[in-house]
Amino acid sequence: MGVAGVESQQSAEEPGEQHKQREEERYLVSGNAEVFLNGGTSMVRGRIVNLSLSGCYIQSAAPVKLSTGTTVDIVAAVRGLPIRVSAEARSSKPRFGMGFLFIAMTDETRRRLAKLISQLQAEGQIDPDPRTMPDDPTTQP
Question: Less Cβ around it within 10 Å: N or C end of the chain?
Answer without folding.
Answer: C
